[in-house]
Specification:
The protein is mainly α. The protein has helices at residues 13-38, 47-75, 87-118, 138-173, and strands spanning 122-124, 128-130. It is built from four helices and two strands, in the order αααββα. A two-stranded antiparallel ribbon has the order 1-2. 67% of the residues lie in helices and 3% in strands. The structure holds protoporphyrin IX containing FE (2 copies). One protoporphyrin IX containing FE binds at residues 26, 29-30, 33-34, 37, 52, 55-56, 59-60, 62, 107-108, 111-112, 114-115, 122, 145, 148-149, 152, 155.
């Protein structure tokens, strides 16, 4: 069991738990999103609307976890990348991590904005009704759907690049990159 906090050499239990819980949640949300929008809008079939409600609820949980993660990240030591990496790989790895932080914020926020623009409320844990971020605006609603969609595609592409790099380090270079992020 790793210590709670990060060290120079490795991620701590909190960062590791947040990393893997959020990885599962975000990948799940992206596929749920793609699946639910492909369902037909049929009046008697409530599957689509039910899945959209789950998507919004879980998306807001992702936003709450993001706030905790960001707070943890800015107040923790950042473990070193493994040694012997060429400079471009160090920059690329940190840049992808930064993009993930931007996407973990932008995706739920565009989702929330989209719902507000459509005049549909957003709930948190089925209990609290969150305030609308903007007033009703059909044109903006359509644009936010597009932005939310393209941000999701960017997230999926970066996950493939990031996971491929992690697996390559583990199985090809046999270094500690992946082990640093494992319990
Ligand atoms: C990290 C979190 C999220 C991810 C990865 C994500 C991902 C996606 C994806 C992939 C789609 C399908 C896009 C398409 O093909 O048109 C989608 C649709 C949608 N998302 Fe999210 N989403 C997230 C958070 C949220 C949140 C927090 C809300 C609202 C509170 C939300 C509301 C919606 C809605 C309403 C749609 C359907 C849009 C339509 O009618 O076409 N999403 N999302
Ligand atoms: C939605 C999916 C994912 C996101 C958003 C994500 C995000 C991140 C972020 C932001 C970091 C930097 C540490 C931090 O600030 O927490 C990180 C590190 C890491 N991730 Fe992911 N990750 C995802 C999925 C994966 C997957 C599927 C793997 C492995 C197959 C993986 C392996 C790693 C490893 C090994 C590190 C440590 C890198 C290092 O410091 O050398 N991640 N990830």
């Amino acid at each position: 069991m790793p210590p709670m906090g990060n060290t120079e050499a490795s991620y701590g239990a909190v960062a590791i738990a947040l990393h893997w819980v959020m990885a599962a949640l975000l990948i799940g949300l992206a596929f749920l999103g793609l699946y639910m929008v492909a369902l037909p809008d049929v009046g008697f079939d409530t599957r689509k609307i039910t899945l959209i409600l789950y998507h919004k609820e879980l998306g807001m949980v992702a936003l709450a976890l993001f706030v905790v993660r960001l707070a943890w990240r800015v107040t923790s030591i950042l473990p070193h990348l493994v040694g012997h990496l060429p400079d471009w790989q160090k920059v690329a790895a940190r840049f992808v991590h930064l993009c993930f932080y931007a996407l973990m914020f932008a995706l739920p926020i565009t989702g929330w904005l989209m719902s507000s623009a459509a005049g549909i409320p957003v709930f948190f844990l089925r209990t609290f009704t969150l305030p609308d971020l903007i007033g009703r605006n059909d044109h903006l609603f359509m644009q936010l759907i597009e932005i939310h969609k393209w941000l999701s595609y960017a997230l999926l592409v970066l996950i493939v690049v990031h996971a491929a790099a992690a697996l390559r380090h583990h199985f090809v270079y046999r270094d500690d990159t992946l082990r640093k992020m494992l319990p």
